[in-house]
Amino acid sequence: MNQKSILFCKIFVICELVMVANQTVIAAPFEWPVDDGGNGHFYDYVPGTYSWSVASALSENTKHQDLPGHLTTITSREEKNFLTSQFIRRLGEVPLGWLGGYQDRGAEDYREPNGGWRWVTDEPWDYTNWWRSVGFPDNFNGNQDFIRTQGDFLWDDIEHAPSGFDVRGYFIEFEPPKPPAIPGDFDGNQVLDVLDVNLLMAGLRAGTNLVFDLVPNGELNHQDLVVWVEELKNTYFGDANLDGEFNSTDLIQTFKSGKFEDGIADNANWEDGDWNGDREFDTTDFIIAFQSGGYEIGPRGDVLSVPEPSGATLCLLLVLLAQVHHHHHHHTAKCA
Fold it and tell me: Does 110 reside within a domain?
């Protein structure tokens, strides 16, 4: 493929993503309850004409109740039967749509048409529901590496970007993050970073998934956040950039976010100054941060004693608060 063709391909994908950026699911996702023998995951269907890659990217950038999404993976007959009954009841049919299955041509077990199939979640490829009676998978035209559904969630292998008649949308599944190999590494990138602490705070708000129980004591509360910050990350509340210290750089970063008591609900994360997990950046977060006693005393491992915040430190904080209030509420304040 020449450079011009590659450029046009990239432009096409970008335009497709922009056009569907505001696409939402058609109804409230429904759960397969654990009490009914399910997995506790949520499912939905999003109509529209997308390539498999775009549908997968959209799924992974969609959340429900703070649970991340992905293209649906069907790993048992029970799951297939549940989804079939639910979509027929809700939509009147099982529509033609993408699932999270693809063929890895670089896999050791790759062969056509049955080898090298994988799920986007890396779950075991133990269950299949190919439409065998009509010969699927068949790798028709030699380029069918992705799975779409037929009626009753029967599977057909199909090319990456078929016509709209062939694929009319995608199935999305929402599930809790898997328990991390490294404690506290909820996104699985081998680093304790800001995404991990934000995922933790979202999990504590939801209050249902014990993968976030870091104490552990069978409960989800602020103590789990304390464990992540002070023991696993070895830093302080207030360390907005997670560089191991709580200092003026963190205060500057958080005030630059412009979210301090801005009157907009649920718009702050750790890096913005939300250090208690309530999605707000307000004085409560400063109380938590300064009570932790780490301001301007260096990395946690180097600390021999924990001094009280100095008068200069508190004065600086009050000046910053006054400036923010002046900006948002049009009044002045002064540090005497």
Answer: yes
- Specify which of 34-38, 237-241, 325-329 reaches the highest per-range mean pLDDT: 237-241
| CATH number of the domain that residue 110 is part of | 3.10.100.10
Kindly state the tokens that stand for 283.
Answer: 């004085």
Tokens 């307000």, residue located: 282
Last residue of a domain, which of 174, 196, 225? 174
pLDDT for position 11? 46
**One-character DSSP codes across 276-333:** SSSS-BSHHHHHHHHHTT-BTS--GGG-S--PPPPHHHHHHHHHHHHHHHHHHHS---
Same-domain pairing of 169 and 248: no
Q: For position 134, what pLDDT does the model report?
A: 86
Cα distance between residue 177 and residue 125, in whole Å:
19
Nearest CA among 130, 186, 188, 123 for reference residue 158: 130
How many other C-beta atoms can be found within 10 angstroms of the C-beta atom of residue 151? Answer: 12
Within a domain: 189: no
319 backbone dihedrals φ, ψ, rounded to 5°: -60, -45
Domain coverage including residue 295 = 234-329
- Residue 322 is encoded by which pair of tokens? 């006054």
Same domain, 149 and 243: no
pTM beyond 0.70: the answer is no
Q: Give the Cα separation of 30 and 43 in Å (integer).
A: 5
DSSP-derived 3-state class of residue 55: helix
- Retrieve residue 72's tokens: 């649906």
User: Is 119 in the same domain as 247?
Assistant: no
The answer to whether the CB of 70 falls within 8 A of the CB of 127 is no
Is residue 204 one of the residues assigned to a domain?
no
What is the mean pLDDT of the segment spanning 77-94? 95
**pLDDT at 200 exceeding the cut of 50:** yes
- At residue 8, what are phi and psi to the nearest 5 degrees? -65, -35
pLDDT digits (tens, 9 = 90+) for 136-161: 999 998 999 999 998 789 999 999 98
Please state the domain count of the chain.
2
Residue 192 lies in a domain: no
